[in-house]
Every structure is written in C-alpha cells, then in structure tokens.
Design goal:
48% helix, disordered C terminus, 3-stranded mixed sheet, two-stranded antiparallel sheet, 8 helices, 8% strand, 263 residues, mainly alpha
Length: 263
C-alpha cells in the first residue's frame, strides 16, 4: 500500500468546506426537484452524477482522515451518498444515451466511462461508474486512509512533525466532540474511524438504496445484462461492514450492457 503525505486542515478550512458542500448539495437538490422543467440544470441522470461527483471526489474525499477532520469527511460523505442513492431512481431507467450532454467523461480519475461516440453518455454506465468509485471511497474511509483521486484508491497517511504538533493541539481542543473511534497509525498519527452508529447508518443506507435501484431497473424493464453489474455495487464497502459479498463474478471493464462499447 502506498503512503501519502497529507496536510492538517485548520478549523477555519474545515468550516469553509462544510459550508460550501452543504450549500452546493442544497443547490443540487433544488435542481433535482425541478428536473422535469426545461430550466433545470439537472434534467438527466448524467447531469446529476456530474454535479455530485465534484462534491464527493474533489472536495469531501480530499478532507484529511485525521482527527478531528476525519469526522467531517464521514458526515459529509454519508449525506452525499444518501442524496445520490435517493435521487437515481427519480430519473428514467434508460439504456439509451443521454443526448442532452455535449461533453463526455471518459474513464479515469475524474470518473465516467468510455461510452462510445463522442458527446454521448449512457445513464446506467455513468451510474455504475460513480457507485463503483464510491465503493472504493468508502473502503478508504473505513480504513482511515487518504484518498488518491488519480488512482481512485485509499492510501496510508504520513505526516510531518509540524502537522503532528498541530493535530495534537486540535485534538486537545475538540476531542470531546469526536463521536467515532480514534485510531493510531503506525506513524503515530491519530485517525478518525467511523463510529458504530455511522457504520450502521451506512450499511442500512446502502442496502435500502441498492434495493430501490434494483426495483427501479426492474420497473424500467432494463435488460438483465444491464442490471447484473449493479448486483456487485458496494461489495467492498459491505465486506468492511461485515456483510457477505455477492458471489457472482463481474469485471467492471467489461460493462457493455447499457449500450456502451467494451474497452
């Protein structure tokens, strides 16, 4: 496992991130509620995914896993995960490409799948991609790791002596407000592990959310070949939470069930 240097966030920086993410999440929710209107910026599922991906991977997942910042990362990620799982079934379960998008995301650290013709997005491919990325993100959070947005994996943390001293000062000030477990890494860094309550909430959220998505796919008469990949969503996270993984074998790079071309 690689080891990554990470800087300590000050209380002011944490507050700014929290305020910004919460405001943007509200904007996304408002646009989602108006998704059937021509004026909405999030009329399609790929539009919604593009908007929430920025908050999850460019903001929340760059928050340090160290105490006390790690608790903020868990709190915001829980909120955005719930928003995504709740919103997805609000769109049409279509295997057709989204013709309203002018730009196409391709596979890589910024998310999205290679989906065939330029300018084309396949809604179910986009949904599977972000759920797969979110599974890796939660595995990193549950492992008290920092997120590498390029490799989309968690990495162990290293900290400078100066930052370690700053963390000690912050812990002495905020330790009483930390609800999760404090884990000491091999480098002596205090890391935030989700509490039992947070883990239970995450487990329930995933199980209920994926059940709703499976029903949504059934109601949309989506072909079995396009539904099967979703059976493995969050397997990694659920294994961390003590749930048994789906025994079916699936290779993400082979996802061709939603009209996308294979790689």
């Amino acid at each position: 496992m690689e080891t990554t240097n990470v800087k300590f966030l000050t209380e002011v920086q944490e507050r700014r991130i929290m305020t910004y993410v919460e405001e943007k999440a509200l904007d996304i929710n408002r646009a989602f509620q108006k998704r059937h209107m021509l004026s909405s910026k999030l009329r399609t599922l790929p539009d919604y995914i593009s908007a929430i991906r920025v908050l999850i991977f460019d903001l929340v997942m760059v928050i340090s896993p160290m105490v006390p910042s790690g608790e903020l990362r868990v709190s915001l990620l829980l909120r955005l995960t719930a928003d995504l799982l709740d919103a997805a079934p609000g769109y049409a379960a279509s295997i057709s490409p989204d013709e309203n998008d002018e730009d196409m995301s391709t596979s890589g650290g910024s998310g999205g799948s290679e989906t065939g013709d330029a300018g084309t997005k396949y809604p179910l491919v986009e949904l599977f991609d972000i759920l797969h990325e979110l599974d890796n993100a939660w595995a990193a959070v549950l492992s008290c790791q920092v997120w590498n947005n390029e490799s989309q994996t968690g990495e162990d943390v290293m900290l400078s002596v100066v930052d370690t001293e700053n963390q000690v000062d912050a812990m002495e000030h905020d330790a009483s407000s930390v609800s999760g477990d404090i884990v000491a890494s091999e480098h002596g860094i205090k890391l935030y592990a989700p509490s039992d309550t947070e883990s239970t909430r995450l487990r329930s959220m995933i199980l209920a959310g994926m059940s709703a998505i499976e029903d949504w796919l059934d109601e949309g008469q989506v072909p079995d070949v396009a539904k099967e990949p979703f059976e493995q969503c969050f397997d990694l996270t659920l294994s961390f939470l003590g749930e048994e993984s789906n025994e079916a074998s699936f290779v993400p790079d082979g996802f061709v069930g939603c009209g996308a071309t294979s790689k």
